[in-house]
Amino acid sequence: MNAATPKSTAVGLKVSALDDREILMTRLFDAPRDLVFDAFTKPHLIKRWLTGPDGWSLPVCEVDLKVGGRLRYEWRHTNGTGMGMSGTFREIERPERIVHVELFDEDWTGGEAVVTTVFTEQGNQTLMRQTILYGSRAARDAVLKSPMEQGVAQSYDRLAALLAALEAGAA
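The structure corresponding to this sequence follows.
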């Protein structure tokens, strides 16, 4: 896959390789930027959508939203398997930009990855553009070959539904 041919799965999700070490994911959400930013940074909201494929949950979600602050996610599957990830915030510009590093407990991505998430308001919609910079091309390629894209697509579909419910006052 190359930058000229993004791959698309769920409604609006686009995943592409930017260069030798970086992935770009974009998704347009039908919600204002402040609300999308909150959904990415408030644990009680994150736990409702960042669960990946069916059968997974996010029982541990800790976010200290400040430069130098830590984050911790722990996912659990109904079959008892688990996965954890920790990180540190490098930049926070509410409501437009978050930069953090992340490292999975069982490091399958070759070390820390730098994640930059930018939220751009377009009318009453928000374009989320997320780049993930890995330590090597091999790490980036391993992620692209993994089921990550399907899990992200399902999570972002949940997020879109949550945002609609929050906008309607039903959540």
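Residues 1-10 have pLDDT under 50 and may be disordered.
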